[in-house]
Design brief:
The protein is mostly beta strands and about 240 residues long. Helices cover about 15% and strands about 40% of the residues. The chain has helices at about 5-15, 40-45, 145-150, 210-220, and strands at about 50, 55-60, 65, 70-75, 80-85, 90-95, 95-105, 110-115, 120-125, 135-140, 160-170, 180-185, 195-210, 235-239. Strands 2, 3, 4, 5, 6, 7, 9, 10, 11, 12, 13 and 14 form a twelve-stranded mixed beta sheet that branches. A hairpin with a 5-residue loop joins strand 9 (about 120-125) and strand 10. It is globular, with a radius of gyration of 17 Å. The termini are far apart. Residues about 15-20 have low confidence and may be disordered.
Length: about 240
């Protein structure tokens, strides 16, 4: 798959550029209307996010995440705050190497764990050489201030703008332990809701202060798609 197609798929996770003005999270362009943009949003049987309730414990391989790069900037694309990353950052799974392209945020969380919704969820978006996507999701609990989030949100960009961070930081510092995780087949959580995405939701959480959560939510609004039917899918949980 060529680089243009891969770029289009990645952009679709946070912005369906051809019809970006036609979807959002409001009363007249919210998730219930996304099927008018892409039928997959309404008819797909492997849609994300989900409520993780009946996971099956399995002897799954440990996640192999190697992030040696840094976060250097932050973009507000009108739907989310998306971090700009650089360096060598990969997820190895199923015999494939997936390169980290970006990560972004949702307030509140899109996925639920045992019916619990978190105040903030980060999606680390990866693609392999053939354009297949894999997302690692990290939940945040309101507790103490997060030093990395403080650096990331020191100068929050207005819609359509991008800022360069005054202090770059290691991407890996935003990850909790990833020994315990949930896995399922899913989709993009925004139009065009394309399926075939490998999802890995980490069981361990990171901390964020109430002030930080409010600042991010004020900038992005409630940008979470409601949970979707699981249908015949099996959700696996690493032992």
């Amino acid at each position: 798959m060529n680089k243009t197609i891969i770029a289009t798929l990645l952009a679709g996770l946070v912005s369906f550029t051809a019809q970006a003005s036609e979807w959002g999270y409001g009363d007249h362009n919210g998730p219930e209307d996304w099927g008018k943009i892409s039928q997959t949003c309404a008819l797909g049987r492997n849609q994300s996010p989900i409520n993780i309730t009946d996971a099956v414990a399995g002897d799954m391989q440990d996640l192999s995440i190697s992030y040696s790069g840094k976060v250097t900037g932050l973009k507000n694309n009108g739907h989310t705050l998306q971090a700009i990353v650089e360096g060598h950052n990969v997820l190895n799974v199923d015999g494939h190497e997936f390169e980290l392209k970006q990560f972004h945020f949702h307030t509140p969380s899109e996925n639920l764990i045992k019916s619990k919704q978190y105040p903030l969820e980060a999606h680390f978006v990866h693609a392999d050489k053939d354009g297949n996507l894999a997302v690692v999701a990290v939940m945040f609990e309101v507790n103490s201030e997060n030093a990395e989030i403080a650096k990331l949100s020191a100068d929050l960009p207005e819609e359509g703008n991008t800022v360069t961070l005054k202090e770059a930081f290691n991407i890996a510092d935003l990850l909790p332990s990833y020994e315990s995780y949930y896995r399922f087949n899913g989709s993009l959580t925004t139009p065009p809701c394309s399926e075939g995405v490998r999802w890995f939701v980490l069981n361990e959480t990171k901390s964020i202060s109430a002030t930080q959560e409010k600042a991010l939510n004020k900038m992005m609004g409630n940008n979470n798609r409601p949970v979707q039917d699981i249908w015949a899918r099996r959700v696996m949980f690493s032992k």
